[in-house]
Write a structure and sequence with these properties.
The complex is a heterodimer. Chain A contains 8 helices and 17 strands. By secondary structure, chain A is α/β, with parallel strands linked by helices. Chain A has an 8-stranded mixed β-sheet with strand order 1-8-7-3-4-5-6-2. The two termini of chain A are 32 Å apart. In chain B, 44% of the residues lie in helices and 14% in strands. In chain B, helix 5 packs parallel to helix 6 and helix 19 packs across helix 20. Chain B starts with a strand and ends in a 6-residue tail after the last helix. The chains are: A alpha/beta, B alpha/beta. At the A-B interface, helix 5 and helix 6 of A face helix 2, helix 3 and helix 20 of B.
Chain lengths: 378, 488
């Protein structure tokens, strides 16, 4: 699924964000792009933000229009798009998807060796306005919304305002924030987030080692371990729920059971621990020799770590693993974590009896993979 | 200059090859003796896993990072969190009368003199006033005796009134009735069911042993208890009734049979308890008594038998081992009042006697029955909550019970897992502060903790069984300690 496409535009000199209206609206036209198909308008476009046309432009004038779109035919009522002055149409929110997220910023204060979305050192603080606008337009019945980056907390008060805005406009939408948690080292920041009292907020925070220097190496940021672990404590102090995320690779595997003990002992309050297979895109390719380990070769450590966490009463999930490389005892913990539109299966998977339960592969991550992929026979 | 500094820990030469190190928050590691020597001389190589384990376990630090100190501070607060809510367990002696005449019983009377030995309605009401002045977030009321079912009218009053007050105040409350079940009838069961009351009973072993320990008219204590357990499970659910056993001289020969009886009756836990040294039990030492060493031999055999049952697929946990292992293997405190530092006497649990006198613990009131009332904190009719719970009597007990300051305890490797029992030491030696080399309390806990560590280290299968006992209770502890934070 493509999330952006260049269009031909007229009458657009600044980004215009709006809901998609495939069906004519009885109210709220001023926030909506009217969707036209095959050169025909579904209704009179006056009062709408503008017209978004799949294929040929319909006969309109005196209002913004973007036409010539081919890939975004899936757009439907309630989806949210931004139309840029340079002609790009970006899909910010799809109402039918369970995987919507706001990419708050592309900046980050870490540079993890296996980052799947490498940060950029740009000032993109202007995005905040777009995020607020998006939050206002998202359907309040949305079940879950991701808040991600980059490092979303880098905007500090802007981040807090974002969470507060979600609480106000989307009170029944669960928020899942991906953050390195480092800024919560500052107790006041954690306190301010706690004070927002969002009813359904979880911060997913990575911890890669029980040893500070090893964690700091993996995230390429000296002092990050100290900031993250104290951040975790501060978040708990102010009743913000946290999830701990561990990416499994050659640098985290050797002490994985010790890390599990460390988590059970120091962060028993974490609401969830995710043990995640390496995603094969982004920076990982530059550090492959340092990071790669065949998942089939780390099953003893994974089994031990999962056992320690489960016995400690913690909720544990294993993400991004094909079932054929996962110890059968661990299958109950495996989640189909790869978004349905990102996952694929291999020729080896043909006829596999477990394929319905298996998350498969990331589309972009099938080249470097376990040597033990095979089909289960019924 | 050394590449690392040491954080507070205690150690024990565990055996010929290994030294056990335990930090202030109860995390432990076994080190080869050589590694230990190098570690404390600041000569341990900092790249090796031994050092990294010590670093991650907060036995050492190697930078200016605040993380180990912040984490230790939080863990220490968590371990001592049993102090947070103040007194949560409130024990009501609703009657001293009992129709059993157990050899080891500490206080009960076979008597029909209701006015003399039953708790009055007014006393119960005043005691409840005190219960609800406790700041504890979760209250637990235990009704015991004597045999509380002999005075069911009072049980009914305390439960209904307690439940009503808790609802009015929006507080959590739980009720347990400690009973031999012999007098349990359908009306009582219906009442317990309606009010969500749990039952705790006594099973000492197979029928002959149980009946010998627990005489009653008709010599049918075992049959009555077993029938009561079956009916209670039908009415209240399988976990609605738990059982405790008391070890007598007659028990010492039959640990396997006792354990087998618990399995046969479908219990998931057994609490192997030695005789308490108080009351009538002390007088009949020749018929029922034994040395601590004899008890510990019994304990080891019984535990072996329990482990074998578990290995063969029957889940049965030993409650004392479960308690100690939870302290050793998790960051959480446990609620057991006889093994806290400072002691749980008065500040964790309190006893309201039938006559309105308030005692710091069950042991304190037993001592009073023998004529020594020094642990009486006051009386529900005469004294206020601050006078009872803030008075000199309780302060003296607590001040003597900080194991961290007791000679012999302060430097013991097991301190973070252990506690103090000043009332027990007073009863056995006349001194609130124990003389550790001769203390039976020390003998018991030191031996059992060391034995559990040996079992835990012995093989993966045993370790799995012991961990499963910890796991069994952990969700409840997590909910209590984390205030349901993880309920998504």
């Amino acid at each position: 699924v493509r999330l952006h496409e260049p269009a031909r535009i007229a009458g657009i000199d600044q980004p215009i964000i709006g809901r998609v209206a495939r069906t004519p609206l009885s109210s709220g036209q001023a926030d909506a792009w009217l969707l036209a198909e095959g050169g025909r308008l579904p209704c009179d476009p006056s009062g709408y933000l503008g017209v978004l046309a799949l294929g040929e432009p319909p006969p309109v004038s005196g209002m913004p229009i973007a036409h010539g779109l081919r890939q975004l035919g899936y757009l439907d009522d309630g989806d949210v798009v931004a139309v840029e002055p340079n002609g790009f149409v970006r899909v910010l929110y799809r109402r039918a998807s369970p995987h919507n997220f706001i990419l708050v910023t592309e900046q980050c204060n870490s540079l993890c060796l296996m980052c799947s979305q490498p940060p950029r050192a740009i000032d993109d603080s202007g995005r905040l306005g777009e995020h607020f606008r998006l939050i206002d337009l998202i359907d309040p019945s949305t079940e879950e919304l991701g808040i991600t980056g980059g490092e979303p907390t880098l905007f500090r008060d802007g981040f807090l305002e974002l969470i507060a805005r979600c609480r106000e406009r989307l009170p029944s939408t669960a928020l899942h924030v991906l953050t390195n948690g480092r800024l919560f080292f500052y107790r006041r920041f954690a306190e301010k987030l706690g004070r927002i009292a969002h009813p359904d907020l979880v911060l997913g925070i990575p911890l890669y080692s029980d040893i500070d220097s090893r964690h700091d190496h993996i995230v390429q940021a000296p002092g990050a371990f100290e900031e993250t672990v104290i951040g975790l404590q501060n978040l708990d102090r102010y009743d913000v729920r946290v999830e701990i995320r561990v990416v499994l690779h050659a640098l985290s595997i050797p002490r994985l059971p010790r890390l599990a003990t460390f988590i059970a002992r120091n962060f028993p309050f974490a609401c969830h621990v995710a043990l995640m297979g390496l995603e094969m895109f982004g920076l990982v390719h530059q550090h492959l020799s340092e990071l790669w380990i065949d998942p089939a070769d780390y099953q003893p450590q994974l089994r031990a770590a999962a056992g320690i966490l489960c016995e400690a009463g913690m909720n544990v999930s294993i993400y991004n693993h094909q079932l054929c490389v996962l110890d059968r005892q661990l299958w109950p913990l495996a989640r189909k974590s790869i978004s349905d539109w990102k996952n694929v299966y291999l020729p080896e998977c043909n006829g596999c009896s477990a394929i319905q339960q298996c998350g498969g592969f990331f589309q972009s991550g099938t080249k470097i993979r376990s040597a033990h992929i095979r089909a289960f026979n019924p | 200059m050394s590449a690392y500094g040491l954080l507070p820990f205690r150690f024990l030469r565990f055996d010929d090859a290994r030294t056990l190190v335990v930090n202030d928050v109860g995390e432990h590691l076994f080190l080869a003796n050589d590694d230990f020597a190098r570690f404390v001389r600041h000569e341990l190589p900092t790249e090796g896993d031994v050092f990294l384990d010590l670093l991650a376990g907060h036995f050492a630090f190697d930078s200016g990072s605040l993380a180990p100190f912040e984490l230790l501070a939080t863990k220490y607060r968590t371990k001592k969190a049993f102090l947070d809510g103040f007194t949560s367990l409130h024990i009501f002696v609703v009657s001293l009368r009992c129709e059993h005449s157990c050899h080891y019983c500490q206080v009960s009377r076979v008597s029909s003199d209701r006015t003399r030995y039953d708790m009055s309605e007014a006393t119960a009401r005043r005691a409840l006033d005190l219960v609800f002045q406790s700041p504890a977030p979760r209250l637990k009321i235990e009704l015991q005796g004597g045999e509380p079912l002999l005075h069911f009218e009072r049980v009914r009053q305390i439960v209904t009134d307690g439940r009503r007050r808790a609802e009015a105040a929006g507080r959590e409350i739980e009720f347990v009735v400690t009973t031999n079940l012999a007098l349990l009838d359908d009306e009582m069961l219906a009442f317990f069911r309606e009010h969500g009351v749990f039952l705790s009973t006594s099973i000492d072993g197979p029928e002959a042993l149980h009946n010998a320990n627990r005489p009653r008219p008709g010599n049918d204590s075992h049959a009555k208890a077993v029938a009561g357990i079956r009916r209670a499970r039908e009415a209240l659910g399988h976990d609605g009734v738990a059982a405790l056993m008391t070890t007598t001289r007659a028990s010492l020969q039959s640990p396997e049979a006792i354990v087998g009886e618990y399995a046969r009756l479908g219990f998931t836990s057994i609490f192997l308890r030695p005789l308490s040294p108080y009351g009538f039990a002390r007088r009949s030492v020749r018929t029922t008594g034994y040395t601590m060493r004899e008890f510990l031999d019994f304990y080891v055999r019984a535990l072996d038998s329990i482990l074998e049952l578990n290995a063969n697929g029957t889940y049965l946990a030993e409650t004392y081992a479960q308690l100690l292992l939870t302290r050793m293997l998790t960051p959480f405190p446990t609620g057991y009042v006889d093994l806290q530092s400072p002691t749980g006497a008065g500040i964790g649990a309190v006893v309201y006697n039938y006559d309105g006198d308030v005692y710091a613990s069950d042991e304190s009131r037993m001592l009073a029955e023998m004529g020594d009332t020094r642990f009486r904190l006051g009386n529900v009719h005469r004294d206020s909550y601050p006078a009872i719970f803030g008075g000199d009597t309780l302060r003296r007990i607590i001040a003597a019970s900080v194991a961290e300051s007791i000679p012999g305890c302060a430097d013991c490797a097991f301190l973070p897992w252990c506690g103090a029992d000043p009332v027990h030491h007073y009863a056995t030696t006349g001194d609130l502060v124990p003389h550790i080399p001769t203390s039976d309390f020390h003998e018991k806990n030191f031996f059992i903790i060391k034995h559990l560590l040996s079992l835990y280290e012995r093989d993966a299968a045993t370790r799995r069984i012991l961990r499963s006992w910890v796991g069994q209770g952990i969700q409840e502890i997590r909910q209590e300690r984390l205030h349901g934070k993880e309920v998504a």
